[in-house]
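Reviewer comment 2.1 asked that we show a complete input and output for one of the modelled complexes. We chose the 6-diazenyl-5-OXO-L-norleucine case, as it is the one discussed in the main text.
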Amino acid sequence: MQSRCCAGLLTAFLCCTNVGEVSAKEPVTGTHGMVVAQEPIAADVGLEILKNGGNAVDAAVAVGFALAVTHSSAGNLGGGGFMLVRLANGATTFLDFRECAPRKASRDMYLGPDGEPTRDSIFGWRSSGVPGSVSGFSAAHKKFGTKPWADLLAPAIKLARDGFVVSEPVAESLKSAEQLRQDPESKRIFLRDGDYYKPGDVLRQPELAETLDRIAQHGAREFYDGETAHRLAAAMTAHGGLITVDDLKAYKTIERKPLTGEYKGFQILTAPPPSAGGLGLLQIMGILTGTHYDSDGPNSTKAVHYEAEAMRRFYADRSEYMGDPDFYVVPVKPLLNPAYLAKRRSTIDPQHATPSDLVEPGLPKAMNAGITWYESTETTHYNVVDAHGNAVAVTYTLNNSYGNGITAPGLGFLLNDEMDDFVAKPGAPNMFGMVGGDANAIEPGKRPLSSMTPTIITKNGKLFMAVGAPGGSRITTGVTEVILDVIDFHMNPQSAVDLPRFHEQWKPDILYLQDGFPAATEDALKKMGYQVKPTEGVARVEAIVVKGHTLEGGTESRLHGKVAAY
Ligand code: DON
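Response of the prediction step:
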């Protein structure tokens, strides 16, 4: 039996005991409002907004801007993401502020003279998609906000201008961020030209404060058509980047209908395309239905086997059918058709792993319209629930940790390398080992396929859960596992988040087991034919569960996040 709890983590205030391999850690609770985020200063910013009468969307916008200051590896102005909103009155929406390919982008833009993908989709000025975060937060505020826009940016501006005290994890993260060393502006701001920030030092970002201040004064159009836009576009031109003022002016947040489904009497609201995450969550749940996969308990051989096989089948479909729905007809209904999922389920051998080579994308043809994965803290997810029962789940990202490592000169924010989420060449794996084809090929204005899975769950019309995670291709599996742990294994959100997870993504044909995974299950899975590899983590999930009148929070212990509640 292994203790995964309080080993040097900032969770000493949460007592924990071990029940087998499952930590029975008590969740932090609240009765009025809760913010769960991966950086404590930003979580507290959101809580203050709630305490001062702001609603969950106000708080989510303020947290988003605060994370852009205090959590530079993922919080951002220069990236994009998704915001899922469910109001207490039952109204829902999904704001897609995912980056899009610039107009000068083209299908083969990342192929070298040998026809193979270069690393330009990850490093350098050409790796950035047109950023969406500022537009997304503005759209959310216009639609649902109750506090003045400038008030929601004020905490972030103060944190950038006056600085914040660097914590140990932030100091470590900055020091080890290789890509920040390559760009003079990033090196100056985040690495103090080699005199690295130590815990307790104050990190000030005056250029970022000015950018935020302009956005506070003039609104999102400052970012897309004002001084910020023109300076960003000029820097792009000077360094061979693609984004122009016209790209920025044309950028729009798209409001979409959340993808919906049902699982054992729970209503699931989740991310539609251009995320594959929601389809993954619903496909996996659909394939598991009726298997009694949960009869032997969480992380039992039976549970992991059925979940992994369902994941494998989803990732095969993902590679073929999923992309930006404005450019490619994603067969959402056929992919979620119970008869189709039953067919997929029937191909699972109860006793043996199915080799991925024998699993193909599964829809009838007529319906078809080498970099090793690593885990770091690139993307970030947070949830907010307010006293009225409004809920918001946001996942936003620069893609890689600190994006492409380039700070827009004089503007203080890092640029994304989201273009790597497109398919550079059919069959060639991206940074997360994801493969794909036409559905996710590069086209001007198109949004790259995502795994981000912000999800809100209700039961009998009442809020039950808000959840999501960073973790690249592992987001979908990590979020699905935590939901199943809560619904099927009756775990509280903190214990569910702490349970060691597993990940199977069809290709490569490997079952990744998070450190701390039960050894007996691992041995049994190997005997069933799984090729198993240890991994540090499978997504870093953040969750809020509503239990009666109490909000329970679960935050990733391997990060230094916070459940802020009152
Ligand atoms: O949208 C996606 O799926 C990726 N850009 C997310 C990247 C990510 O989660 C990296 N974080 N750990």
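The two ends are 35 Å apart (CA to CA). We note this here for comparison with the apo prediction described in Section 3.2.
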